[in-house]
Prior knowledge:
Blueprint: H1 2-21, H2 24-34, E1 43-46, E2 50-54, E3 60-64, E4 68-73, E5 77-82, E6 87-92, H3 102-114
Antiparallel strand pairs: 1-2, 2-3, 4-5, 5-6
Amino acid sequence: MYVVDAVIWGLVAYWGYISWRLSPKRLARRSWRSNVRLHGRHHDQVGPNGVTYTASDGTQVLIPWTAIDDARETKHSFLLIDHRGEVRNSLPKRGLSSPDLIPALRELLNRFIHGQPPATPDSAR
Length: 125
């Protein structure tokens, strides 16, 4: 009987350990430590062709608007979501020169991703 209890508790501890290792926060920390390209300053440029990400080592990656399905806004950033529902890039709000530019960036992303025309004062009613 004690052997069965020990095996069950061992399996519970093992599953807990695996769950802890696969937690999103832990995986994010591990990928941050292992990928030195993420360290340092980077530059995101939003343009008519897409978002150009420039890493601190100078490498550039263009994410075209055709690869983005949605932009989800959080408290600190805009998340660019691809066709599979994964985050392709994050545009931090603190990277803007002024908090007054957040609505303009929101409108720009909606226009480029969804093809919506810019909001006018008459259409806001």
